[in-house]
């Protein structure tokens, strides 16, 4: 491997690692230490202590090896984060047969949301660029296949998949952050939090200055919050309504 993190294939080390085509580490790697074990140990740390706790030294300690021994397998922490994200995503499950494009993308989006909810630390990992790791590309492939029978152009299909991916990730981040914020309160439910928010707004907002917000308050929107699934499905349906308009459905 050369100084810029690339090997003889011309691919970045992180991509070689994800696809399993990187050359074996040199100079006698520790017996039993593998890339998959390193990634799993990092995921265990993220699950137990949160993503900020993940470091090369912490992962090495979990595995009982020296920090330097990890660098024979993983070139940098960013590479490790990319591999963690790919492992958490996993290979997408096959959708039920016979779905139309809309039901297929609804199912695809829900499955993606489920991966984030199972691994909440994934929404904190920075976006390093367009998807290039195996499982990320498998998810892209499955999403594009859902649109195969539509008249959309190829760039439009890719745009739809990118839009849905961004939407799902942002919704997951919102739900996870709200869930964390509610924890530890006297009433840690969403309904309880919204009721408190409703009361607070009534105290601080003059309806003459904020008539639109008071309209929402008076309509009882904050009295009983929708479930996470209802919020997600409503927004997803609006996105798919827009996609349908592109080809006249």
From TrEMBL:
One of its GO terms (biological process) is negative regulation of DNA-templated transcription. Residues 55-74 bind DNA. InterPro entries: Homeodomain-like_sf, HTH-type_TetR-like_transc_reg, HTH_TetR, Repressor_TetR_C, Tet_transcr_reg_TetR-rel_C_sf. Residues 1-30 are annotated as: Disordered. Residues 32-92 form the HTH tetR-type domain. One of its GO terms (molecular function) is transcription cis-regulatory region binding. Keywords: DNA-binding, Transcription, Transcription regulation. PANTHER family: HTH-TYPE TRANSCRIPTIONAL REGULATOR RUTR, TRANSCRIPTIONAL REGULATORY PROTEIN. This is TetR/AcrR family transcriptional regulator. It comes from Spongiactinospora rosea. The lineage of its organism: Bacteria, Bacillati, Actinomycetota, Actinomycetes, Streptosporangiales.
